[in-house]
Structure formats: C-alpha cells, structure tokens
Amino acid sequence: MRRVVLLTLAGEEPASLLPLTFTRKAARVMTERLAHYLGRRAAEIRAGTEGTLIEALESDITRPTPLRGSSIDLIYLSTVFHGFSRDEIPGFLAEVKRLLKPGGRLAIVEIDKVETSFGPPLHLRFSPEDLRREVGLPPLETVAVGPHFYMQIFGNCQTGEVYGKDRLGGR
Description:
Elements: H1 2-9, H2 24-38, H3 41-47, E1 72-78, H4 89-99, E2 100-111, H5 128-135, E3 139-146, E4 149-155, E5 166-167
C-alpha cells in the first residue's frame, strides 16, 4: 500500500495503478487506507480500469472464482501467502493453477524467515525453499526485493523445462 501512495504522491496517475488483493478483509483495509491517504484520488485508481482489459473483482482466491480458466498471465501476491491458513492453501493453489494460462506466472513476495521487528511471527513465514514445496509449480527465479523481502516467481510450465536462478544476494 505504501508504494501505491508514494507513486501517487510522486505524480503517477492513479488511473495507471491497480492494487490487488484476494480477500474481502484485505480489500476493505486497502480501500480504507487508500481513501485515508489519497482522498478522492483513491477513486481514480479503480475508475482507471474502465475501458481497459483490467477488471476489478472482489473474490476469495482460495475458492473457485468466476474468472475463466487459463485466462491469467500473472498472479501477484505481496506478503499475503503467509496469511493463508493450512486449509486455505490447497484451494488457493488449485485456483491459481486453474486460472494461469500456459506459460503464466505466479509471483509471491514474502518476508524472509528471520526474526524482524515487523511482520508475522516466524512460525508463519516461508523461506524460499518452504514456498517451493508448498506451491508445487516450477520455480523460475527468486529475487531479493528489499531488506527482509524476496519475490519468488513460479511458472505454469511443463515438467522438464529449464528454470531460472536465484538472485538473493547471499541469503
């Protein structure tokens, strides 16, 4: 959310931004925070999707959504995966696999599995190796995206394809 606010305050047109979340609670919180920080400009973000191929949808990604199968190029989660319960993860993964086009990508940003002064308790965090085991899609690349954060990209690829590399800077 901070990035959306900073981008908007730096002059980025709100209509060019599309913040996404996959739970009703998170969507409500995101909407409230945007309204608090950006006022009426927050409405411009959602309005900016009109006339584009982007459609705002409120849905629970841990259950079947109304979206057509094999229709999504990229599903992006930022510090959300650790919030899924053990019972929700299989539903989330099934829906991701159903929605991704062949060659589509799943990008997950998570907090490193180390003690920090912020974020979820250590027992809820996933290391890149933990995430690979949970997701079950071929990992393509792991990238450090800031202090204490990494992004792991998975591909909706055929088994046996050549995958990318890790760029964690010694983590």
